[in-house]
Amino acid sequence: MVKKISKKTYVFLMFLFLYLPIIVLIVYSFNDSKLQAGWSGFTLRWYMELFQDTEILRALYITILIAVLSSTISTIIGTFAAIGIHGIKGFNRKIILNLNYIPVLNPDIVTAVSLMALFRFFKIEFGFITMLLSHIAFSIPYVILSVLPKLKQMNTNLAEAAMDLGATPFYALRKVIIPEIFPGIVTGMLLAFTLSIDDFVISFFNTGQGVSNLGITIYSMTRKGINPIVNALSTLMFIVLLLLLLIINKRSDENFKNRR
Asked: What's the per-residue H, E or C state across 168-226?
């Protein structure tokens, strides 16, 4: 009994430590004062001002557009790359996997400067395209790492049986392999989407004039002090992502029950 209580207490304290900053942010998004030092009363003014701030809305638009495009493209590339890596055997597979681990373990500042040097070498004008390409580049390894475990769990005889029965390799890929690894694909896409929204360093070094995402815009605000509008925006983003995660988990559970 004591062990159960101690385990529950430990889990509660751990999640409290993780989510307490978010709870404070949500509470202060309703604070009537611009200062974060104390509570001055309940208000919704920051949410109303949020939808009137053109700079924040433009940064949000660019952030979401970059996140959607980069997560979609990196998921497609990463899924096919994972399928190819899964088919490689022996020492060559270990080499490729280790090469895939390097961008994940590499500090963001090193990746950002490397991509910036690459774009300058090819004389690519910095702007929306360079930011998009940089987000795709650092998201692909995470997608590969999300899809590979599902490929290992999959019965490899299914695709071979489908082709023995007359299916083309592309048909077997579309109707057999992808449905089996679909949870891993969704996980990789969500991870790429979240990393893209969260990124600052890579975006900062690979953007151009007039192209600014939320990370860069909020960083520029720190010189004057954080506007409470940012708290309101962060609260809305947290709620939307939480609802999206709950919907995806519910659908995954339903699909698993239907398969059983």
From this structure: CHHHHHHHHHHHHHHHHHHHHHHHHHHHHHHCCHHHHHCCCCCCCCHHHHHHHHCCCCC
- pTM, full prediction: 0.83
In the block, residue with structure tokens 């202060």? 28
Q: Which residues pair with 42 in a beta bridge?
A: 31
Same domain assignment for residues 184 and 214:
yes
Q: pLDDT tens digits, residue range 140-152?
A: 999 999 999 888 8
Do 32 and 93 sit in the same domain of this protein? no
Looking at the fold, whether 13 and 64 belong to one and the same domain comes out as no
Residue linked to tokens 């009537």: 32
- What's the longest Cα–Cα distance across the chain? 71
Q: Of the candidates 238, 187, 253, 174, which has an alpha carbon nearest to the alpha carbon of residue 18?
A: 238
Average pLDDT over residues 222-241: 82
Domain that holds residue 9: 1-43
In sequence order, the 6+-apart residues with CB closer than 8 A to the CB of 101 are: 141
48: in domain? no
Q: What's the structural domain count of the chain?
A: 2
Q: Which of 190, 205, 177 is nearest to 251 (CA)?
A: 190
Query: Model confidence over 153-203: pLDDT tens digits?
Result: 887 777 778 777 777 878 888 888 888 888 889 889 988 998 998 888 999
Give CA–CA dist 171/180, Å, rounded: 14
